[in-house]
Specification:
The chain is mainly β and 670 residues long. It is built from six helices and 41 strands. The strands form nine sheets. Strands 14, 21, 22, 25, 27, 28, 29, 31, 32, 35 and 36 form an eleven-stranded mixed β-sheet that branches. Strands 2, 3, 4, 7, 10, 11 and 13 form a seven-stranded antiparallel β-sheet that branches. Strand 23 and strand 24 form a beta hairpin. The termini are far apart.
Amino acid sequence: MKTRRLVEKLTPIFIKIGRVAFLLGAFLFLTACATDDFTGSEEAARQANGDKAITFGFDVPASTRAGGADAATALGNHFIVYGEKGETSNAKYNDGNLVFPNYTVHYTASTAYTTTSNTKDWEYVGVTPISTSYVKMYDGSTTTNVTADAQTIKYWDYGATTYTFTAVSANKEDIENGRVVIQKNTTGAENVYQKGYTITLAKTGSDPYTYPQVDKLYFADRKVISTSSNADRNQENAYGGNVKFTFRNLVSQIRAGIYETIPGYDISEIKFFITGDNEAKVSTTSAFGAICPNNKIDNYEGTITVTYYSDTEGNENQPKVTQSVAAATDLVLGTNLSTVSTSSLLGTTASNPTWETAGGSFTKVFPQINNTTNLKLKCNYTLWNSVTHETITVEGATAEVPAEYLKWKPNFKYTYIFKISKNTNGQTGTGTTPAGLYPITFDAVEVVAEDGQAEYITTVSEPSITTFGVKAGKYTYNKNEYEAGSDIYATIMDGSSVVDFTLGTNVNVYKATTTDAANFPITEASVAESLAEIAGSTKKVTTELMNTDASTCFTAAPIKEATVPGEDGVNKAVKALKLTGVKATTATTALVVEYVKTAATYNTTSESHTFADAEALAAWEASNYNLYTDAAGQNHATSANNTEVTYYKRTSVSNVGVYAYKVIHVVAAP
């Protein structure tokens, strides 16, 4: 009886591996409810487990939940946990006392409640470590391998102030064969957020070598649980309650698509420059190519370092990944664009571009959260008229995407779409702490699919304009082009620099309208022509300035922002034009962003006229569309109460100027 009563006092601490976010292949879900944890009675627990009584209960064992086994499979049925407890008052910066020295935690279906340390099919007590050679700890001077000593049960210490947990998972065979060496860094050069992991990746065997499966590396968010959360240990992430991990897959994923909007022409061929030698060669592989820092995960050897975002960076405690191998210069992706021909033309909408890989699949790459280099696209393409079969070769079309939009983060997908246009616990503490020892146990893995996709649409022109949309705090993607209610951000690149513009001076927002959408569609080219034309009733495409609009097209007036939302909720420091709460356009309307690098100027002649009154002046101006009030021929005349007015008429172009345009279509929300 004494033994039985002791067992009844052992109540596990859950480390619930809570939100494992996957963006690789199919998303996996666990439908575990909050009521799974500490919702039953002690007696219910006894009944569920026969005579294996424990001091907490569940009405339904979590192993019956459909998603648990799938989630465990994604992690290879194991993870390695490092845990320490602190005894200082600072929950973020304690040195800690070791509790879990890289314990292996293993999943076996239908084993929940068979021990006090296993409530939802995850067990660490008595589990044989995955490796005693390739799982290590490093304290800044000494490296210690995991030992083969028995993994023993752990209990919450209410005399401590905090517990801190981190965890990692990798392909078991890779670890056992030394292709993945896991080193937990137990001291931080700067602070506790530096106490992450160094992972060494290496090939084994002989040609053909076996390389590590990088896309099977997962890192959990750093989890800190403070004694201040002791109010209800029945809650997750409460002292004495469930520790809920969030695992994130190591890799990022990228893809590129292209479409065109050139009236009267299709694009029947496209080739890209890749630049190991100063842009001097066209890709001979017919693959999509661009200047862009990158590291693909295939056949990778080197080290990766994982630390954690600090409390001053945003995304606190999420893993931050860097790799040792210098980034490649050329980004060469799929060859699907090589099929563009007169029988298989380039896509014509943002929602249905031609992808560089069949079906728009993604390429797996390493994160590059510290990237400072822009993406530079350069291509040649052939315009083809399907009626006359006329062709026009366009060479050296370019676009540039800001470095801030290339800071790839773990577990996120990034889409880059290029638009070609003409412009192209015994009581271990004191006081009210609970009596008894409360074992630490591990709950089933919960897998949550994050909507971690970011899509950028860039005009292929010089200067170039990159836009993206955000709605309800998330990036919008796969729209033609944006969904009503979104906030749209436009960043302008002039060469390799982000333009610091002035709204109303060198950047303007217009609403464009066409009288004949079939024959005179709204494109970058038609808008440019409309703005350059003299006013008159014969114009098919007209524009209306919307720089101060807060109701017709937007819910707030356009503004310049110094930061833009990040795909992960952390702002990026990049200047952009913000269009707030865009409203749906129609078949005959669109929004337009204009950047004026250099305004056009004209040679003009002057003439003076005298009018009896303002009404006579207005009537005369209404019938004379080609009048300007300045010698450069830039500002159209407007009515004024003057009896004598000097006007200017254009005679020839002095300077054509440099402009960039981005036409934006907005569809009604579904």
